[in-house]
DNA sequence: CGGGATCCGCATCGATACTG
DNA sequence: CAGTATCGATGCGGATCCCG
């Protein structure tokens, strides 16, 4: 990543906010966690169970970064054994709201995307043959 | 969210549309390209120049997957040398629209996120000391 | 101009084991 | 229960060269 190019009209420099946020939203787990926690505070292993396929390492890692970004709050309760509750912050809630249209789009259009893929692959196969 | 995982109240299975789409949107380059191409059709090297830091390999790779997903259209014009124009599809345009709130959020809240990070890091440093 | 093919380093991530 | 620590594979992505 080099210097910014403010000259070019339609350009995304490395410092562009969209890119920086996209890098975080791009973390496929982060958004899922955010959406889950928005509905209700959740505990570590509850999240682990709710998100099929996530490893404990990834989960704790992503949770930490979400907390660092001010999107989530971590609350440890001194019981035995320890209880930890993760809840969304107001800032996180606004992000979750901004992601909602995307989730709706996903639900409404996934099939069409999959169809497009099949068409594309079929066309490619014709060329190969 | 449909009957697939209607048992578990808050869960994201691997087949969840949101996850599948997020995997694509998670590709940090894909969304940027989509947003650029929405405004006006663009050519390969124009995109390359517009997106700071992308390699030609990544660009051609992402372009191909966007085309495969039916989100973008590739049009080759038989000039010498070849001219190739990438434009958004109607489906892609709806996705771009769904991403817009996210971009706005990014522009409005990046600073707050960065502040949160600094606070978090400062607190951690205190503990270390 | 618009890519494909290849090589390869390094960061990611999963698996496992251990702890407060 | 809620994590940390370590190791090892793998695959992403950059760099480079080449071609129609």
TrEMBL record, chains A, B:
Domain HTH hxlR-type: residue ranges: 16-114
A GO BP entry: regulation of DNA-templated transcription
Source superkingdom: Bacteria
UniProt keyword DNA-binding, yes or no: yes
SUPFAM superfamilies: Winged helix' DNA-binding domain
Pfam family, one: HxlR
Keyword annotations: DNA-binding, Transcription, Transcription regulation
MF terms in GO: DNA binding
Protein name in the entry: HxlR family transcriptional regulator
Organism field: Bradyrhizobium jicamae
């Amino acid at each position: 990543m080099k210097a910014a190019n403010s000259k070019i009209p339609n350009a995304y420099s490395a410092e562009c906010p969209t890119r920086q946020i996209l890098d975080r939203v791009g973390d496929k787990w982060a958004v899922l966690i955010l959406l889950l926690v928005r509905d209700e505070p959740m505990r570590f292993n509850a999240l682990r169970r709710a998100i099929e396929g996530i490893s404990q390492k990834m989960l704790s890692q992503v949770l930490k970064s979400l907390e660092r970004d001010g999107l989530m709050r971590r609350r440890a309760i001194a019981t035995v054994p320890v209880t930890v509750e993760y809840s969304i912050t107001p800032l996180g809630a606004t992000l979750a709201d901004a992601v909602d249209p995307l989730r709706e789009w996903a639900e409404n259009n996934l099939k069409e995307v999959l169809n497009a893929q099949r068409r594309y692959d079929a066309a490619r196969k014709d060329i190969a043959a």
